[in-house]
What we know:
The radius of gyration is 18 Å and the shape is globular. The strands form 2 sheets. It has a 3-stranded antiparallel beta sheet with strand order 1-3-2. The chain contains 10 helices and 6 strands. α3 (82-89) packs across α9 (196-208). The protein has one domain. It is α+β, with helices and mostly antiparallel strands.
Amino acid sequence: MTVKMVGTFAEAAEVIKEMGVLPLSSFIPGHLSLEAITAKESWHTGLETDPWLWRDRFAGEGVAAYGRFFAKKPVLIDAGLFPLFQKAFGAARSAQQRYQDGLVSPAVPKIWQAIHDQPGIDVKALKKQVGMADKESKADFDKALIELQASFDVVIAGISEQLNEFGNKSGWNSTCYLLANRWLKLHGLQPSELSAEEAQEVLFQVLDGRLSADAMKYLRKVFKVK
């Protein structure tokens, strides 16, 4: 596998468009990651060339949808392909319906509702909104939030800076969340009108020309596609 190193946001954006799927770290067999195509010393510098900052910028500028869509790991999906992923592997029923059917964690519907009511809500505010800001609720909150990303209901929209009373930056930035359909609309995209089966077929036809055989096999296994 040839590693094409990149050093700028624009170059990385081209790689995402070319490959379709780009995880932050290398966990997909036979497939590159943002970590693999960038210099180790460029990470966490706070500069424009810092890939750690790019991940939120990709989402904020509509280059790629960003979230823990599978394997509980952060992945970037080309914006043009995201509607196909969403239709092919997203939840067919609402978060509330899935909860009533016993298919999701108890916190899923209230987290979904909070993100619906406050688009772009940051994770700290979200925890408070749903009454899960205490340490004892962390595991349940994280689990439910990952479930909502894995069902393609929710995406990471970017980050918000934490400011003190004087308007100065204070503490770590917080991750912000949007409903996936709202993110699509924000960037001039539409949900796919194909059936789930049709979307799967089209998606894997497209990916077959971009991903290695090992990566294709892995994704088929993850999404339980024959």
